[in-house]
Protein backbone atom coordinates (compact mmCIF):
# COMPACT_ATOMS: atom_id res chain seq x y z
CA UNK A 1 0.00 0.00 0.00
CA UNK A 2 2.59 2.45 1.19
CA UNK A 3 5.13 1.48 -1.45
CA UNK A 4 2.49 1.59 -4.12
CA UNK A 5 1.72 5.18 -3.25
CA UNK A 6 5.41 6.03 -3.38
CA UNK A 7 5.79 4.60 -6.86
CA UNK A 8 2.66 6.40 -7.90
CA UNK A 9 4.00 9.76 -6.73
CA UNK A 10 7.34 9.09 -8.30
CA UNK A 11 5.73 8.35 -11.67
CA UNK A 12 3.78 11.58 -11.36
CA UNK A 13 7.02 13.37 -10.55
CA UNK A 14 8.88 11.92 -13.51
CA UNK A 15 6.09 12.75 -15.93
CA UNK A 16 6.03 16.23 -14.48
CA UNK A 17 9.78 16.45 -14.85
CA UNK A 18 9.55 15.31 -18.44
CA UNK A 19 6.85 17.89 -19.02
CA UNK A 20 8.97 20.64 -17.48
CA UNK A 21 11.77 20.07 -19.92
CA UNK A 22 9.63 20.28 -23.01
CA UNK A 23 10.80 21.62 -26.29
CA UNK A 24 9.86 25.11 -25.10
CA UNK A 25 11.50 24.62 -21.71
CA UNK A 26 14.78 23.68 -23.34
CA UNK A 27 14.64 26.72 -25.62
CA UNK A 28 13.79 28.92 -22.65
CA UNK A 29 16.79 27.74 -20.67
CA UNK A 30 19.03 28.10 -23.71
CA UNK A 31 17.89 31.66 -24.34
CA UNK A 32 18.35 32.76 -20.71
CA UNK A 33 21.74 31.06 -20.50
CA UNK A 34 23.71 34.32 -20.95
CA UNK A 35 22.11 35.62 -17.81
CA UNK A 36 22.51 32.28 -16.01
CA UNK A 37 26.25 32.41 -16.65
CA UNK A 38 26.33 36.07 -15.61
CA UNK A 39 24.43 35.34 -12.43
CA UNK A 40 26.48 32.34 -11.31
CA UNK A 41 29.94 33.51 -12.37
CA UNK A 42 29.72 37.26 -11.92
CA UNK A 43 27.12 37.77 -9.18
CA UNK A 44 26.74 34.85 -6.74
CA UNK A 45 30.36 33.71 -6.87
CA UNK A 46 31.74 37.22 -6.38
CA UNK A 47 29.33 37.98 -3.54
CA UNK A 48 30.52 34.92 -1.63
CA UNK A 49 34.17 35.60 -2.49
CA UNK A 50 33.91 39.23 -1.46
CA UNK A 51 32.40 38.29 1.90
CA UNK A 52 35.21 35.77 2.42
CA UNK A 53 37.92 38.29 1.44
CA UNK A 54 36.51 40.80 3.91
CA UNK A 55 37.43 38.36 6.69
CA UNK A 56 40.89 37.65 5.24
CA UNK A 57 44.25 39.18 4.64
CA UNK A 58 44.64 39.21 0.89
CA UNK A 59 47.24 40.94 -1.27
CA UNK A 60 46.47 39.04 -4.51
CA UNK A 61 50.00 37.65 -4.66
CA UNK A 62 49.50 35.09 -1.89
CA UNK A 63 46.35 33.07 -1.19
CA UNK A 64 43.85 34.76 1.17
CA UNK A 65 44.56 34.20 4.84
CA UNK A 66 41.59 33.96 7.22
CA UNK A 67 41.83 36.81 9.72
CA UNK A 68 38.43 36.87 11.37
CA UNK A 69 37.19 40.34 12.22
CA UNK A 70 40.62 41.96 11.88
CA UNK A 71 39.73 44.05 8.81
CA UNK A 72 36.53 45.33 10.39
CA UNK A 73 38.33 46.15 13.65
CA UNK A 74 41.02 48.02 11.75
CA UNK A 75 38.34 49.83 9.78
CA UNK A 76 36.49 51.03 12.86
CA UNK A 77 39.73 52.31 14.38
CA UNK A 78 40.85 54.14 11.25
CA UNK A 79 40.33 57.93 11.27
CA UNK A 80 40.53 57.99 7.46
CA UNK A 81 37.49 55.67 7.30
CA UNK A 82 35.42 58.08 9.41
CA UNK A 83 36.67 60.98 7.36
CA UNK A 84 35.66 59.32 4.10
CA UNK A 85 32.31 58.29 5.60
CA UNK A 86 31.70 61.88 6.68
CA UNK A 87 32.76 63.23 3.26
CA UNK A 88 30.34 60.83 1.57
CA UNK A 89 27.50 61.87 3.87
CA UNK A 90 28.30 65.57 3.48
CA UNK A 91 28.29 65.17 -0.30
CA UNK A 92 24.93 63.37 -0.19
CA UNK A 93 23.33 65.86 2.20
CA UNK A 94 24.23 68.75 -0.11
CA UNK A 95 23.60 66.92 -3.37
CA UNK A 96 20.39 64.90 -3.02
CA UNK A 97 17.93 67.67 -1.98
CA UNK A 98 19.51 70.33 -4.22
CA UNK A 99 19.27 68.13 -7.28
CA UNK A 100 15.71 67.02 -6.53
CA UNK A 101 14.56 70.60 -5.93
CA UNK A 102 16.15 72.03 -9.08
CA UNK A 103 15.01 69.09 -11.22
CA UNK A 104 11.43 69.65 -10.06
CA UNK A 105 11.66 73.39 -10.65
CA UNK A 106 12.96 72.88 -14.19
CA UNK A 107 10.42 70.16 -14.96
CA UNK A 108 7.54 72.38 -13.83
CA UNK A 109 8.89 75.25 -15.94
CA UNK A 110 9.29 72.96 -18.93
CA UNK A 111 5.93 71.23 -18.47
CA UNK A 112 4.04 73.88 -20.43
CA UNK A 113 3.45 74.32 -24.11
CA UNK A 114 6.73 76.17 -24.60
CA UNK A 115 8.31 76.80 -27.96
CA UNK A 116 11.67 75.13 -28.68
CA UNK A 117 10.94 72.59 -25.96
CA UNK A 118 13.17 70.03 -27.61
CA UNK A 119 16.06 72.49 -27.79
CA UNK A 120 15.73 73.27 -24.09
CA UNK A 121 15.67 69.60 -23.23
CA UNK A 122 18.73 68.98 -25.38
CA UNK A 123 20.68 71.80 -23.70
CA UNK A 124 20.07 70.12 -20.35
CA UNK A 125 21.19 66.76 -21.67
CA UNK A 126 24.62 67.79 -22.95
CA UNK A 127 26.20 67.51 -19.48
CA UNK A 128 24.33 64.23 -18.90
CA UNK A 129 25.88 62.56 -21.96
CA UNK A 130 29.41 63.90 -21.32
CA UNK A 131 32.04 61.72 -19.67
CA UNK A 132 33.57 63.01 -16.44
CA UNK A 133 36.79 63.60 -18.36
CA UNK A 134 35.01 66.04 -20.67
CA UNK A 135 33.27 67.62 -17.69
CA UNK A 136 36.60 68.06 -15.92
CA UNK A 137 38.07 70.11 -18.77
CA UNK A 138 34.86 72.06 -19.25
CA UNK A 139 34.63 72.88 -15.54
CA UNK A 140 38.32 73.79 -15.52
CA UNK A 141 37.61 76.53 -18.05
CA UNK A 142 35.48 78.16 -15.35
CA UNK A 143 37.10 77.13 -12.06
CA UNK A 144 40.79 76.97 -12.87
CA UNK A 145 42.41 78.84 -9.95
CA UNK A 146 44.91 80.63 -12.16
CA UNK A 147 43.15 81.43 -15.41
CA UNK A 148 39.51 80.37 -15.01
CA UNK A 149 36.59 82.66 -15.71
CA UNK A 150 35.14 82.46 -12.17
CA UNK A 151 38.15 84.05 -10.47
CA UNK A 152 38.27 86.73 -13.16
CA UNK A 153 34.66 87.49 -12.33
CA UNK A 154 35.33 87.60 -8.57
CA UNK A 155 38.26 89.99 -9.09
CA UNK A 156 36.09 92.25 -11.23
CA UNK A 157 33.57 92.35 -8.38
CA UNK A 158 36.39 93.30 -6.02
CA UNK A 159 36.34 89.92 -4.24
CA UNK A 160 39.17 87.55 -3.32
CA UNK A 161 40.05 84.89 -5.93
CA UNK A 162 39.51 81.30 -4.71
CA UNK A 163 41.52 78.09 -5.01
CA UNK A 164 38.30 76.15 -5.77
CA UNK A 165 39.02 72.40 -5.91
CA UNK A 166 42.33 72.98 -4.12
CA UNK A 167 40.55 74.50 -1.16
CA UNK A 168 39.70 72.13 1.67
CA UNK A 169 36.47 73.97 2.50
CA UNK A 170 35.30 74.52 -1.05
CA UNK A 171 36.14 71.21 -2.68
CA UNK A 172 32.98 69.26 -1.74
CA UNK A 173 30.47 72.09 -2.28
CA UNK A 174 32.05 72.72 -5.68
CA UNK A 175 31.98 69.01 -6.60
CA UNK A 176 28.32 68.97 -5.58
CA UNK A 177 27.62 72.01 -7.73
CA UNK A 178 29.19 70.28 -10.72
CA UNK A 179 27.37 67.00 -9.97
CA UNK A 180 24.04 68.85 -9.87
CA UNK A 181 24.90 70.65 -13.10
CA UNK A 182 25.68 67.31 -14.76
CA UNK A 183 22.79 65.30 -13.38
CA UNK A 184 19.85 67.66 -13.14
CA UNK A 185 18.78 67.17 -16.78
CA UNK A 186 18.39 63.43 -16.16
CA UNK A 187 16.22 63.89 -13.08
CA UNK A 188 14.27 66.67 -14.83
CA UNK A 189 13.13 64.18 -17.46
CA UNK A 190 12.04 61.69 -14.80
CA UNK A 191 10.04 64.48 -13.16
CA UNK A 192 8.54 65.48 -16.52
CA UNK A 193 7.22 61.95 -16.93
CA UNK A 194 5.71 62.16 -13.44
CA UNK A 195 4.11 65.55 -14.13
CA UNK A 196 2.52 64.29 -17.33
CA UNK A 197 0.66 61.68 -15.30
CA UNK A 198 -1.13 64.30 -13.21
CA UNK A 199 -4.69 64.48 -14.58
CA UNK A 200 -5.63 67.92 -15.90
CA UNK A 201 -9.17 67.70 -14.49
CA UNK A 202 -7.79 68.10 -10.99
CA UNK A 203 -6.30 71.48 -11.87
CA UNK A 204 -9.52 72.54 -13.58
CA UNK A 205 -11.56 71.54 -10.54
CA UNK A 206 -9.20 73.46 -8.28
CA UNK A 207 -9.43 76.51 -10.52
CA UNK A 208 -13.21 76.46 -10.21
CA UNK A 209 -12.70 76.40 -6.44
CA UNK A 210 -10.57 79.52 -6.91
CA UNK A 211 -7.15 78.03 -6.13
CA UNK A 212 -4.12 80.06 -7.25
CA UNK A 213 -0.96 78.72 -8.93
CA UNK A 214 0.91 78.21 -5.67
CA UNK A 215 -2.07 76.59 -3.95
CA UNK A 216 -2.53 74.24 -6.91
CA UNK A 217 1.14 73.31 -6.84
CA UNK A 218 1.11 72.63 -3.11
CA UNK A 219 -2.13 70.69 -2.89
CA UNK A 220 -2.19 68.88 -6.24
CA UNK A 221 1.20 68.68 -7.95
CA UNK A 222 3.43 67.97 -4.95
CA UNK A 223 1.34 65.14 -3.43
CA UNK A 224 0.64 63.55 -6.81
CA UNK A 225 4.27 63.47 -7.86
CA UNK A 226 5.53 62.40 -4.45
CA UNK A 227 6.24 58.85 -5.76
CA UNK A 228 8.54 60.42 -8.37
CA UNK A 229 10.23 62.53 -5.70
CA UNK A 230 10.72 59.40 -3.65
CA UNK A 231 12.27 57.64 -6.63
CA UNK A 232 14.54 60.58 -7.43
CA UNK A 233 15.74 60.71 -3.83
CA UNK A 234 16.38 56.97 -3.56
CA UNK A 235 18.14 56.81 -6.94
CA UNK A 236 20.38 59.77 -6.24
CA UNK A 237 21.23 58.60 -2.72
CA UNK A 238 22.33 55.24 -4.10
CA UNK A 239 24.43 56.77 -6.87
CA UNK A 240 25.93 59.36 -4.53
CA UNK A 241 27.15 56.75 -2.10
CA UNK A 242 28.88 54.97 -4.93
CA UNK A 243 30.21 58.13 -6.54
CA UNK A 244 33.70 57.46 -7.75
CA UNK A 245 34.36 58.70 -11.26
CA UNK A 246 33.71 62.38 -10.64
CA UNK A 247 35.96 62.62 -7.61
CA UNK A 248 38.63 60.36 -9.11
CA UNK A 249 38.79 62.53 -12.22
CA UNK A 250 38.23 65.98 -10.77
CA UNK A 251 40.50 65.86 -7.73
CA UNK A 252 43.64 64.66 -9.41
CA UNK A 253 43.33 60.92 -8.85
CA UNK A 254 43.71 60.19 -12.52
CA UNK A 255 47.38 61.10 -12.47
CA UNK A 256 48.17 59.20 -9.28
CA UNK A 257 45.49 57.44 -7.28
CA UNK A 258 47.26 58.02 -3.97
CA UNK A 259 46.81 61.72 -4.73
CA UNK A 260 43.05 61.37 -5.24
CA UNK A 261 40.73 62.81 -2.65
CA UNK A 262 41.49 66.48 -2.85
CA UNK A 263 43.62 68.60 -0.51
CA UNK A 264 44.29 66.80 2.79
CA UNK A 265 41.77 64.06 1.82
CA UNK A 266 39.00 66.65 2.01
CA UNK A 267 37.10 64.90 -0.77
CA UNK A 268 38.13 61.32 -0.05
CA UNK A 269 34.82 59.47 -0.30
CA UNK A 270 34.23 55.82 0.61
CA UNK A 271 34.53 54.52 -2.96
CA UNK A 272 37.81 56.36 -3.45
CA UNK A 273 39.11 55.03 -0.15
CA UNK A 274 38.14 51.52 -1.24
CA UNK A 275 39.83 51.92 -4.63
CA UNK A 276 42.98 53.33 -3.09
CA UNK A 277 43.28 50.56 -0.47
CA UNK A 278 42.43 47.78 -2.93
CA UNK A 279 44.08 48.69 -6.16
CA UNK A 280 47.00 50.87 -5.04
CA UNK A 281 48.01 49.24 -1.76
CA UNK A 282 46.68 45.74 -2.66
CA UNK A 283 44.84 45.49 0.67
CA UNK A 284 42.09 43.48 -1.01
CA UNK A 285 40.66 42.05 2.21
CA UNK A 286 40.46 45.46 3.85
CA UNK A 287 38.96 46.95 0.68
CA UNK A 288 36.32 44.19 0.64
CA UNK A 289 35.44 45.06 4.24
CA UNK A 290 34.93 48.69 3.16
CA UNK A 291 32.72 47.46 0.31
CA UNK A 292 30.51 45.46 2.68
CA UNK A 293 30.21 48.32 5.15
CA UNK A 294 29.20 50.55 2.24
CA UNK A 295 26.66 47.92 1.16
CA UNK A 296 25.19 47.74 4.67
CA UNK A 297 24.97 51.54 4.95
CA UNK A 298 23.19 51.73 1.59
CA UNK A 299 20.83 48.94 2.57
CA UNK A 300 19.95 50.65 5.87
CA UNK A 301 19.48 54.00 4.14
CA UNK A 302 17.13 52.45 1.59
CA UNK A 303 15.17 50.75 4.39
CA UNK A 304 14.98 54.07 6.22
CA UNK A 305 13.71 55.81 3.11
CA UNK A 306 11.14 53.05 2.48
CA UNK A 307 9.95 53.36 6.04
CA UNK A 308 9.87 57.15 5.88
CA UNK A 309 7.95 57.25 2.61
CA UNK A 310 4.74 56.20 4.40
CA UNK A 311 4.66 59.66 5.94
CA UNK A 312 4.87 61.69 2.76
CA UNK A 313 4.46 59.60 -0.39
CA UNK A 314 0.92 59.32 -1.73
CA UNK A 315 -0.03 56.49 -4.04
CA UNK A 316 -3.50 56.77 -5.52
CA UNK B 1 -9.42 87.11 -19.03
CA UNK B 2 -8.00 86.34 -15.63
CA UNK B 3 -7.10 82.79 -16.60
CA UNK B 4 -5.30 84.00 -19.69
CA UNK B 5 -3.19 86.52 -17.78
CA UNK B 6 -2.22 83.89 -15.21
CA UNK B 7 -1.36 81.52 -18.00
CA UNK B 8 0.83 84.11 -19.68
CA UNK B 9 2.75 85.00 -16.55
CA UNK B 10 3.35 81.37 -15.59
CA UNK B 11 4.63 80.82 -19.09
CA UNK B 12 6.91 83.86 -18.91
CA UNK B 13 8.43 82.68 -15.63
CA UNK B 14 8.80 79.23 -17.15
CA UNK B 15 10.69 80.65 -20.12
CA UNK B 16 12.91 82.72 -17.86
CA UNK B 17 13.86 79.79 -15.59
CA UNK B 18 14.47 77.34 -18.39
CA UNK B 19 16.45 79.81 -20.51
CA UNK B 20 18.75 80.80 -17.66
CA UNK B 21 19.23 77.14 -16.83
CA UNK B 22 19.93 76.18 -20.46
CA UNK B 23 22.57 78.92 -20.65
CA UNK B 24 24.21 77.62 -17.46
CA UNK B 25 24.26 74.15 -19.03
CA UNK B 26 25.81 75.26 -22.32
CA UNK B 27 28.06 78.21 -21.49
CA UNK B 28 30.86 76.17 -19.84
CA UNK B 29 31.05 74.07 -23.01
CA UNK B 30 31.31 77.22 -25.14
CA UNK B 31 34.03 78.56 -22.85
CA UNK B 32 35.94 75.28 -23.13
CA UNK B 33 35.51 75.35 -26.90
CA UNK B 34 37.03 78.82 -27.02
CA UNK B 35 39.85 77.65 -24.75
CA UNK B 36 40.60 74.80 -27.13
CA UNK B 37 41.12 77.34 -29.92
CA UNK B 38 43.67 79.47 -28.07
CA UNK B 39 47.45 79.57 -28.17
CA UNK B 40 49.13 78.48 -24.95
CA UNK B 41 49.95 82.08 -24.09
CA UNK B 42 46.33 83.07 -24.56
CA UNK B 43 45.12 79.97 -22.67
CA UNK B 44 47.12 80.94 -19.58
CA UNK B 45 46.65 84.70 -19.85
CA UNK B 46 45.54 86.53 -16.69
CA UNK B 47 43.02 88.09 -16.86
CA UNK B 48 41.54 85.57 -19.30
CA UNK B 49 40.09 86.61 -22.60
CA UNK B 50 36.86 84.74 -23.35
CA UNK B 51 36.97 84.64 -27.15
CA UNK B 52 40.42 83.95 -28.62
CA UNK B 53 41.88 86.61 -30.89
CA UNK B 54 42.53 84.12 -33.64
CA UNK B 55 40.95 80.64 -33.72
CA UNK B 56 43.75 78.05 -33.66
CA UNK B 57 41.93 75.25 -35.50
CA UNK B 58 45.30 73.54 -35.88
CA UNK B 59 45.09 72.63 -32.16
CA UNK B 60 42.68 69.90 -33.16
CA UNK B 61 45.14 68.48 -35.70
CA UNK B 62 47.91 68.57 -33.06
CA UNK B 63 45.92 66.21 -30.84
CA UNK B 64 46.43 63.39 -33.32
CA UNK B 65 50.21 63.89 -33.41
CA UNK B 66 50.74 63.62 -29.65
CA UNK B 67 50.45 60.55 -27.45
CA UNK B 68 48.29 57.57 -28.34
CA UNK B 69 45.13 59.52 -29.09
CA UNK B 70 44.33 57.39 -32.15
CA UNK B 71 44.80 54.19 -30.12
CA UNK B 72 42.46 55.49 -27.43
CA UNK B 73 39.84 56.34 -30.02
CA UNK B 74 40.12 52.94 -31.71
CA UNK B 75 39.92 51.16 -28.32
CA UNK B 76 36.88 53.17 -27.28
CA UNK B 77 35.13 52.38 -30.55
CA UNK B 78 35.95 48.68 -30.30
CA UNK B 79 34.78 48.36 -26.68
CA UNK B 80 31.61 50.35 -27.36
CA UNK B 81 30.79 48.46 -30.56
CA UNK B 82 31.24 45.00 -29.03
CA UNK B 83 29.30 46.03 -25.91
CA UNK B 84 26.36 47.39 -27.88
CA UNK B 85 26.26 44.32 -30.12
CA UNK B 86 26.55 41.96 -27.15
CA UNK B 87 23.94 43.83 -25.11
CA UNK B 88 21.44 43.83 -27.99
CA UNK B 89 21.78 40.10 -28.60
CA UNK B 90 21.91 38.91 -25.01
CA UNK B 91 19.31 41.24 -23.50
CA UNK B 92 16.80 40.51 -26.27
CA UNK B 93 17.32 36.74 -25.99
CA UNK B 94 16.92 36.70 -22.24
CA UNK B 95 14.11 39.26 -22.32
CA UNK B 96 12.23 37.20 -24.91
CA UNK B 97 12.57 34.02 -22.87
CA UNK B 98 11.28 35.75 -19.73
CA UNK B 99 8.38 37.35 -21.56
CA UNK B 100 7.29 34.53 -23.85
CA UNK B 101 8.55 31.08 -22.92
CA UNK B 102 7.81 28.66 -20.12
CA UNK B 103 10.84 27.08 -18.52
CA UNK B 104 11.81 25.72 -15.09
CA UNK B 105 12.65 28.24 -12.33
CA UNK B 106 11.54 31.12 -14.56
CA UNK B 107 9.97 33.24 -11.82
CA UNK B 108 12.77 32.71 -9.33
CA UNK B 109 15.30 33.64 -11.99
CA UNK B 110 13.45 36.81 -12.86
CA UNK B 111 13.35 37.88 -9.22
CA UNK B 112 17.11 37.33 -9.22
CA UNK B 113 17.50 39.61 -12.23
CA UNK B 114 15.72 42.33 -10.27
CA UNK B 115 17.84 41.50 -7.23
CA UNK B 116 21.05 41.93 -9.23
CA UNK B 117 19.99 45.49 -10.01
CA UNK B 118 20.04 46.26 -6.29
CA UNK B 119 23.56 44.95 -5.61
CA UNK B 120 26.02 47.85 -5.53
CA UNK B 121 28.75 47.07 -8.10
CA UNK B 122 31.36 48.07 -5.52
CA UNK B 123 30.73 44.88 -3.51
CA UNK B 124 31.64 42.59 -6.41
CA UNK B 125 34.28 44.67 -8.16
CA UNK B 126 37.26 43.06 -6.38
CA UNK B 127 36.19 39.44 -7.18
CA UNK B 128 35.56 40.53 -10.79
CA UNK B 129 39.13 41.74 -10.91
CA UNK B 130 40.31 38.34 -9.58
CA UNK B 131 38.27 36.46 -12.16
CA UNK B 132 39.74 38.42 -15.03
CA UNK B 133 43.19 38.02 -13.52
CA UNK B 134 42.69 34.24 -13.39
CA UNK B 135 41.58 34.32 -17.03
CA UNK B 136 44.73 36.25 -17.95
CA UNK B 137 42.61 39.07 -19.28
CA UNK B 138 44.13 41.95 -17.30
CA UNK B 139 45.43 44.74 -19.50
CA UNK B 140 43.20 43.62 -22.37
CA UNK B 141 39.95 45.22 -23.53
CA UNK B 142 37.96 42.00 -22.96
CA UNK B 143 36.77 42.72 -19.38
CA UNK B 144 35.32 45.98 -20.63
CA UNK B 145 32.87 44.36 -23.05
CA UNK B 146 32.51 40.74 -21.93
CA UNK B 147 30.00 41.45 -19.16
CA UNK B 148 27.78 43.39 -21.54
CA UNK B 149 27.52 40.24 -23.69
CA UNK B 150 26.14 38.37 -20.67
CA UNK B 151 22.91 40.38 -20.46
CA UNK B 152 22.85 43.22 -17.94
CA UNK B 153 19.69 43.33 -15.77
CA UNK B 154 18.44 46.74 -16.87
CA UNK B 155 18.49 45.74 -20.54
CA UNK B 156 16.74 42.43 -19.77
CA UNK B 157 14.06 44.31 -17.89
CA UNK B 158 13.51 46.77 -20.74
CA UNK B 159 13.40 44.06 -23.43
CA UNK B 160 11.07 41.87 -21.37
CA UNK B 161 8.62 44.77 -21.10
CA UNK B 162 8.76 45.27 -24.87
CA UNK B 163 8.23 41.59 -25.72
CA UNK B 164 5.35 41.30 -23.27
CA UNK B 165 3.39 44.02 -25.05
CA UNK B 166 3.16 42.01 -28.31
CA UNK B 167 -0.22 40.21 -28.82
CA UNK B 168 -0.25 36.44 -28.42
CA UNK B 169 -1.61 35.83 -31.93
CA UNK B 170 1.79 36.48 -33.50
CA UNK B 171 3.30 33.70 -31.48
CA UNK B 172 0.53 31.26 -32.37
CA UNK B 173 0.65 31.94 -36.08
CA UNK B 174 4.44 31.58 -36.02
CA UNK B 175 3.99 28.20 -34.33
CA UNK B 176 1.51 27.15 -37.01
CA UNK B 177 4.05 28.12 -39.66
CA UNK B 178 6.48 25.72 -38.00
CA UNK B 179 8.81 28.23 -36.33
CA UNK B 180 10.74 27.02 -33.30
CA UNK B 181 11.03 29.49 -30.38
CA UNK B 182 14.31 30.85 -31.69
CA UNK B 183 12.89 31.54 -35.13
CA UNK B 184 9.84 33.18 -33.59
CA UNK B 185 12.13 35.39 -31.50
CA UNK B 186 14.52 36.28 -34.30
CA UNK B 187 12.24 36.64 -37.31
CA UNK B 188 8.88 37.72 -35.89
CA UNK B 189 9.47 39.43 -32.56
CA UNK B 190 12.83 41.17 -33.00
CA UNK B 191 11.66 43.51 -35.78
CA UNK B 192 8.72 44.53 -33.58
CA UNK B 193 10.78 45.78 -30.65
CA UNK B 194 13.11 48.14 -32.53
CA UNK B 195 12.44 51.17 -30.27
CA UNK B 196 13.45 49.21 -27.17
CA UNK B 197 16.49 47.82 -28.96
CA UNK B 198 17.47 51.39 -29.80
CA UNK B 199 17.08 52.35 -26.15
CA UNK B 200 19.30 49.49 -25.00
CA UNK B 201 21.87 50.33 -27.70
CA UNK B 202 22.03 53.99 -26.72
CA UNK B 203 22.15 53.31 -23.03
CA UNK B 204 25.02 50.85 -23.53
CA UNK B 205 26.80 53.20 -25.93
CA UNK B 206 26.70 56.05 -23.45
CA UNK B 207 27.80 53.96 -20.46
CA UNK B 208 30.68 52.32 -22.31
CA UNK B 209 31.88 55.40 -24.17
CA UNK B 210 32.10 57.35 -20.92
CA UNK B 211 33.21 54.58 -18.55
CA UNK B 212 36.13 55.36 -16.27
CA UNK B 213 36.14 52.96 -13.29
CA UNK B 214 36.51 49.65 -15.17
CA UNK B 215 39.22 50.78 -17.63
CA UNK B 216 41.17 52.39 -14.80
CA UNK B 217 41.14 49.06 -12.96
CA UNK B 218 41.75 46.64 -15.83
CA UNK B 219 44.15 48.54 -18.09
CA UNK B 220 47.78 49.38 -17.40
CA UNK B 221 49.48 49.92 -20.77
CA UNK B 222 48.97 53.37 -22.17
CA UNK B 223 48.20 52.18 -25.71
CA UNK B 224 45.34 50.03 -24.37
CA UNK B 225 43.56 52.97 -22.72
CA UNK B 226 40.12 54.12 -23.80
CA UNK B 227 39.43 57.80 -24.47
CA UNK B 228 38.27 59.01 -21.03
CA UNK B 229 41.29 57.66 -19.15
CA UNK B 230 43.66 58.10 -22.12
CA UNK B 231 43.07 61.83 -22.27
CA UNK B 232 43.60 62.10 -18.51
CA UNK B 233 46.87 60.20 -18.79
CA UNK B 234 48.17 62.76 -21.26
CA UNK B 235 48.17 65.54 -18.67
CA UNK B 236 51.87 64.93 -17.89
CA UNK B 237 52.91 64.57 -21.49
CA UNK B 238 51.09 67.67 -22.60
CA UNK B 239 52.13 69.90 -19.74
CA UNK B 240 52.45 73.35 -21.24
CA UNK B 241 49.96 72.50 -23.97
CA UNK B 242 46.73 72.26 -22.00
CA UNK B 243 44.71 73.71 -24.85
CA UNK B 244 45.31 70.43 -26.75
CA UNK B 245 43.82 68.44 -23.89
CA UNK B 246 40.66 70.51 -23.97
CA UNK B 247 40.54 69.93 -27.74
CA UNK B 248 41.01 66.17 -27.20
CA UNK B 249 38.28 66.05 -24.55
CA UNK B 250 35.82 67.94 -26.75
CA UNK B 251 36.61 65.65 -29.68
CA UNK B 252 35.83 62.63 -27.52
CA UNK B 253 32.38 64.14 -26.99
CA UNK B 254 31.56 64.22 -30.72
CA UNK B 255 30.45 60.57 -31.28
CA UNK B 256 28.08 60.53 -28.30
CA UNK B 257 26.77 63.96 -29.31
CA UNK B 258 26.00 62.70 -32.83
CA UNK B 259 24.23 59.62 -31.46
CA UNK B 260 22.28 61.87 -29.12
CA UNK B 261 21.20 64.29 -31.87
CA UNK B 262 19.86 61.45 -34.00
CA UNK B 263 18.24 59.46 -31.23
CA UNK B 264 17.10 62.07 -28.74
CA UNK B 265 13.69 60.49 -28.21
CA UNK B 266 15.23 57.15 -27.27
CA UNK B 267 17.51 58.86 -24.77
CA UNK B 268 14.54 60.50 -23.16
CA UNK B 269 12.40 57.35 -23.19
CA UNK B 270 15.30 55.46 -21.65
CA UNK B 271 15.47 57.86 -18.75
CA UNK B 272 11.73 57.97 -18.26
CA UNK B 273 11.58 54.17 -18.37
CA UNK B 274 14.28 53.93 -15.78
CA UNK B 275 12.19 56.29 -13.72
CA UNK B 276 8.99 54.32 -13.96
CA UNK B 277 10.62 51.04 -13.01
From TrEMBL, chain A:
It is found in: Cell membrane. Pfam families: BPD_transp_1 (PF00528). GO terms for cellular component: plasma membrane. InterPro entries: ABC_transporter_permease, MetI-like, MetI-like_sf. It comes from the Bacteria. Its main location: membrane. Keywords: Cell membrane, Membrane, Transmembrane, Transmembrane helix, Transport. GO terms for biological process: transmembrane transport. The keyword Transmembrane helix applies. It is a multi-pass membrane protein. Gene3D superfamilies: MetI-like. SUPFAM superfamilies: MetI-like. Residues 85-305 form the ABC transmembrane type-1 domain. The chain crosses the membrane at residues 27-55, 89-110, 122-143, 170-193, 224-244, 281-304. PANTHER family: ABC TRANSPORTER PERMEASE PROTEIN (PTHR30193), INNER MEMBRANE ABC TRANSPORTER PERMEASE PROTEIN YCJO (PTHR30193:SF37). Belongs to the binding-protein-dependent transport system permease family. This is ABC transporter permease subunit. The lineage of its organism: Bacteria, Bacillati, Bacillota, Bacilli, Bacillales.
From TrEMBL, chain B:
Keywords: Cell membrane, Membrane, Transmembrane, Transmembrane helix, Transport. It is found in: Cell membrane. Gene3D superfamilies: MetI-like (1.10.3720.10). GO terms for biological process: transmembrane transport. The keyword Nucleotide-binding does not apply. InterPro entries: MetI-like, MetI-like_sf. Its main location: membrane. Residues 73-263 form the ABC transmembrane type-1 domain. SUPFAM superfamilies: MetI-like (SSF161098). The lineage of its organism: Bacteria, Bacillati, Bacillota, Bacilli, Bacillales. The keyword Membrane applies. This is ABC transporter permease subunit. PANTHER family: ABC TRANSPORTER PERMEASE PROTEIN MG189-RELATED, ABC TRANSPORTER PERMEASE PROTEIN MG189-RELATED-RELATED. It is a multi-pass membrane protein. GO terms for cellular component: plasma membrane. Belongs to the binding-protein-dependent transport system permease family. It comes from the Bacteria. The chain crosses the membrane at residues 12-34, 77-101, 108-132, 144-163, 184-206, 244-263.
